[in-house]
Amino acid sequence: MATLGTALHIATGALNADQAALSVVSNNVANANTPGYTRQVATFEENDPVTINGQQYGSGASMVGGQSQRDVVLQQALRQQEQWASASGARLTALQHVESIFSQATSAASGSSGIGIGQDMSEFFDAMSSLESSPASTALRQQVITTATNLAADFQAASSQLAGQQVSLDQQTGSLVVQVNRLTQSLAQLNTEIETSSPNFDAGVLEDQRQQDLEQLSTLIGIHQIQTENNGIEITTSSGALLMGGGQSYLLSTAMVSGELHIYDSGGNDITSTLAGGGGQIGGLLTVRGQDIPQMQSALDTLAFDFGTAVNAQNQAGSDANGNPGVAIFNLPPTASGAAAGISVAITDPALVAAAASGAGSSDDTNLLAMAGLQDQGIIAGNTPSSYYSDFVTTLGSLVSGVSTQNAAQEAAVSQMRSQVNSLSSVNLNEEAAALETFEQAYQSASKIFTIINTVTAAALNLGVQTAYSG
Asked: Using the 8-state DSSP alphabet, how is residue 289 labeled?
């Protein structure tokens, strides 16, 4: 049969187990506000029974460790959502900066706020209309040149600011690539430590650190995580370029190609285009730099080129104040590409505005009427100048609004999924208080066994002697 020594051994084990469990709870409480900490739960395991004379007797339990409460699948799903939310968030911020170029435009000539290209075109045609009342007026002719100069300057300013936004996005992307490399190096080191120290079970604090690095990495770049043997992981970009495997980090590099930042994997392959749609802040910034801004620049170039070409052709069809054939009002490149940046006013002499029809006198306004009428003609890709620019601004606004809606939905999904992760993994002080009370009672109960054994032992040693007993 079991002996008092066996009972004493079981009680000692119980005290040790409960004390260890209390330490787990205390650690949870101490780390309740520690970023990335995952709540641990004391795990007990029944000791092997003892067989005496063919009869098995229990030998108590042991606390085998604190088990981190994490769901790997749920955490990976959270990181997937985070990388898409980060991509749309970065894209939204960049697009809002682009939108401000046109929604808060400044006339290069007057310095006044809120004029912009659309207003410039209206003022140019208004100047033409004013000149109709007095085609020989030098002052009114000068106003035509002034409004044309303002328009060309604002085309140049808008194009320059778009190009400046691209440079800024390249700089931001380059900084993010540096952060990605630092994180993959840290992850490689953590991966080695985890594979060495905890190949078959959760690595606790090391695992928390790895998960935290993975979360930061997923906000920077789109990634895939692959579980490997010995509790290790392998990380690739969304398109499959290896970033970290085993204990090695595979660094990304950058280089400027034709004025644009390109990103290369460790094998020297250009992965810029695949990263643009792959998530993370890098994906969002590359999308704006390589897709959104070029589309806007192309539309702006088309407006500048078609507008300038139509005005030039009409002015060249008439006669100037000196009776000579009209000349081009705007300098333009040979094609639409780069027209917004390259447009400028070709004339400074007011007399060169060809108000009259060819061969008519200086007081004639026939060609002037035709030039003013261009504002109602489909001279810009089949649209009037004002409607084309209005559509341009509306399209940009719709893009910003759409990305904003997308980002809000993705952030809501991240918040919901994070709540699910936190409900499992974060420390709940009420739960810890209940666990603390449970283990405290268990500890007190185990301690009581020592008191009882002591009393029984004393009674056995004092057989035949009257002894006061208090139970």
From this structure: I
293-330 pLDDT, tens digit per residue, is 999 999 999 999 999 999 999 999 999 999 999 999 99
The contacts found for 344-350 with CB under 8 angstroms, 24 or more apart, are 344/152, 344/156, 345/145, 345/148, 345/149, 345/152, 347/145, 348/145, 350/138, 350/141, 350/142, 350/144, 350/145, 350/321
Question: Structure tokens of 99?
Answer: 């939108």
CB atoms closer than 10 angstroms to residue 74: 15
For the chain, the domains span 4-69+427-461, 75-416
Q: Which residues does 289 contact at the CB level (< 8 Å), separation at least 6?
A: 94, 166, 169, 170, 173, 260, 261
What is the identity of the amino acid at 262? H
Q: Would you say 280 and 87 are in contact if contact means Cβ atoms under 8 Å apart?
A: yes
Residues 342, 381, 319, 373, Cα dihedral to 10°:
-120
CB 367 within 8 A of CB 314: yes
Q: Which of 79, 24, 90 is nearest to 211 (CA)?
A: 79
- Residues 148 and 138: their CA atoms lie apart, in Å, by 15
More confident residue, 381 or 452: 381
Query: Beta partners for 249?
Result: 244
Give the containing element (helix H, strand E) for 52.
strand 50-52
CB 208 within 8 A of CB 426: no
Closest CA to 386 of 150, 120, 127, 108: 120
Residue with tokens 């997308």: 406
pLDDT at 203 over 70: yes
Q: What is the separation, in whole angstroms, between the first and last Cα of the chain?
A: 25
Q: Are 431 and 29 in contact (CB under 8 A)?
A: no
Place of tokens 């002080």: 429
DSSP per position, 398-446: HHHHHHHHHHHHHHHHHHHHHHHHHHHHS--HHHHHHHHHHHHHHHHHH
What is the tens place of the pLDDT at every residue in 12-39? 877 787 787 788 888 878 888 888 788 8
Q: Which residue has the tokens 């695949």?
A: 274
Distances from the Cα of 133 to the Cαs of 139, 141, 377, 445, 470, in angstroms?
A: 12, 11, 22, 107, 122
Q: Where are the beta strands (DSSP E) in 316-447?
A: 318-319, 330-331, 344-345, 356-357
CA angle, 438 then 443 then 449, to 5°: 130
Tokens of 449: 């066994």
Tokens standing for 359? Answer: 């061969």
- Closest C-alpha to 445, from 5, 60, 48: 60
Q: Cβ-count burial of 254 within 10 angstroms (0-12 exposed, 13-18 middle, 19+ buried)?
A: middle
